[in-house]
Amino acid sequence: MSNAGAVKPVSEARVRVRYAETDQMGVVYHSNYLIWFEVGRVELIRQMGLDYKQMEEDGCGISVVDVHARYRAPARYDDELVIETRLLAARGPVVKFGYRILRVGDGVLLCEGETMHVCVGKDMKKMCLPPKYAERFAARLIS
After folding, report:
1. Looking at the annotation, which residues are catalytic?
2. Prediction pTM value
3. What is the pLDDT of residues 9-67, one digit of tens each?
4. How many whole angstroms separate alpha carbon 126 and alpha carbon 29?
5. How many CA within 13 A on the CB side of residue 43?
6. Where are the alpha helices (DSSP H) in the chain?
7. What is the set of domains in the chain, with CATH numbers?
8. How far is CA 8 from CA 3, 69, 104, in A?
9. Is residue 1 within a helix (H) or strand (E), and if so which, with residue range?
10. 44: which of 29, 36, 74, 85 fits an S-S bond (Cβ 3.0–4.6 Å)?
């Protein structure tokens, strides 16, 4: 992840791998990591004192426009995982998050990645983050 400058505050969320999230080889199916990125992102927004549901009701959605994931090691059924999430950028309509997913038992890095989002209104047209959200996001970047 490109994380030049000061270290950004990290949010943590925990999940436990469910059997349904594994494939025939007994490892977590790759698309589940994207779901866990969302779990981490929503928790980070919550820890910033914001509510994503309220953001949407206020007419501000953040649509995923780009995803990168690097798989390092497999997760398996019943592993407890920690999702570390950082806000990497927030400028104009663009918001970028970084993620690391680690197994709690041994601290092994399983996956790391980034998502880029564009702020959109209820009409799905690109817009800048409204000031009350832009201010919170900017404060998180310089914390």
Report:
1. 23
2. 0.90
3. 899 999 999 999 999 999 999 999 999 999 999 999 999 999 999 999 999 999 999 99
4. 32
5. 19
6. 32-47, 52-57, 131-142
7. 11-142 (3.10.129.10)
8. 8, 20, 21
9. none
10. 85
